[in-house]
Amino acid sequence: MRVINQHKRIINQPKGKISKLIEKLATKEDKIWPYNKWSAMKFREGLKVGSKGGHGIIRYTIVEYDLEQGIKFQFTNPKGFIGTHEFNIIDIDENSTMVSHTIKMKTHGVATFQWLLFIRWLHDALIEDALDNIENHFSTHKKVSNWSIWVKFWRWVFIKTGNTHTKTAMLHHE
User: Are 130 and 11 within 8 A, CB to CB?
Assistant: First the structure.
């Protein structure tokens, strides 16, 4: 199955300020990743091309990284996820920037079922939480995206069943 999944947010800040946040992704100073709700994003060798890592059951390798443009990852797991996902930062004008996250992949076999049934829902919530963190970093009015019933359901299922592959990703439940 062909999958294109995109999330966008316009942040009323110059691109340089957003780039500084991206630079800290998956570090102790990370202000983007929603660690309080989702499993941590980690890389063996930090943020550089060739570094392997991921979060929860999702694994990938950094294939492109440009502090001014964004970062691109190649999926390595789950088996059957063939493609990439990326964060991009694009100037709108001198005081606003669009941050986007895009998945472009094909799924095969069980991975198609996993994507349609639960990964898509969880992924969408995680990315919206990350975009909230970027927006909230620069604002006193805090944005909190609401989770769909499917996100709440799957988080509850994975916690209750003790699924060791996904339970880590579900430790913080609202």
Answer: no
pLDDT of residue 45: 94
CB 1 within 8 A of CB 107: yes
pTM of the predicted structure, to 2 decimals? 0.90
153 CB-side CA count, 13 A: 7
Please tell me which residue, 30 or 160, carries the higher pLDDT value: 30
What are the structural domains, with CATH classification, of the chain?
Answer: 2-170 (3.30.530.20)
Contact criterion met (CB below 8 Å) for 90 and 100: yes
